[in-house]
Design brief:
With 356 residues, this protein is of the alpha/beta class. The chain is built from eleven helices and 18 strands. Strands 1, 12, 13, 14, 15, 16, 17 and 18 form an eight-stranded mixed sheet that branches. It has an eight-stranded parallel beta barrel with strand order 2-3-4-5-6-8-10-11. Strands 7-9 form a two-stranded antiparallel sheet.
Length: 356
Amino acid sequence: MISDRVRDAALSLPGAPAYLYDLPALDGHAASVRRALGDIELYYAVKANPDAELLRVLADHVDGFEVSSAGEHAHVRALFPDRRVALGGPGKTDAELRLPHHRIHVESPNELRRLLDTGLEADVLLRLNPDLPVEGAALTMGGPFGMDDQGVAECLPLFTERVRLRGLHTHLASGLDAPQLLTLAGALLDNGYEEVNLGGGMAVSYASPESRFDWVGYGRELAALGRGRTLRIEPGRALTVYCGYYVTRVVDVKRVRGEAYTILLGGTHHLRTPATKGHDQPFTILPTGKGQGVADEPITFVGQLCTPKDLFSRKIVTSAYIGDTVVFEMAGAYAWNISHHDFLMHPKPAFHYLRA
């Protein structure tokens, strides 16, 4: 359910579709995560949502930002010239290897050799792709990401006084709860490295938005596992997803072979998340409509795109009328920034911010 302040803001927007970000809510959530982590370093994975207003809020709570391209690097440096940046991502170009950073996450022996060829100084974390079982993950990061033990061993003799090995980086999966991540951390910390970046992957439930990752338990247990070491994590979705809303309007209600559909302004070219992950995006309907509709029956919510994959939610028992306002929740991460914006060339959504 949305808060009263989000409801009032959604009803006052000058048009739809639009994104609405609740900045005080983000500030409170990020502050609580920071408190729970204690001395564990917190970086934000900018790929989850690079919106400048969100980054300005997060900057008060994080130790740095993790970027995965020259574009993200330039964006963050323009906003925060003096903040720590960790440079990750597979397939770095020679130009990206020359970017200034606090840490660079090297993905392969050949990438390390190209980094050495720049002649620049660098502090390196080797990205490890260990052979560990990951049960129940929403997404696993195996395959081409990082290196196995043989790749790491090939890297070790290459380091110099200018290009220094600082430790390991790993990001194995997304959608894991605290006990699962702690089990993986225990296995990954069974090494002699004094600095370990454990990545992100904290679980977010679109089916049960009220269920939140156990940051307090995770911070406490992780601190015990890594006592005496520098530990770092870099969540993305779990920090910003709850502050974002996609606000749109019902433009048509129809039946096809007995099934009810609402057609919404916009679509998954604005909010790709439900199509990508195959879930039903949680929503609240605000009864602003006066047109035809359906009441108390299963309804599928779709957008304006010419594809059957333009789905927000499937067969949800509710009521909807032409002109109603629909507020999709949990749209603060991997939403607008991963969507195929120019498909059909519809107008892009506006962006609005709730402030204190």
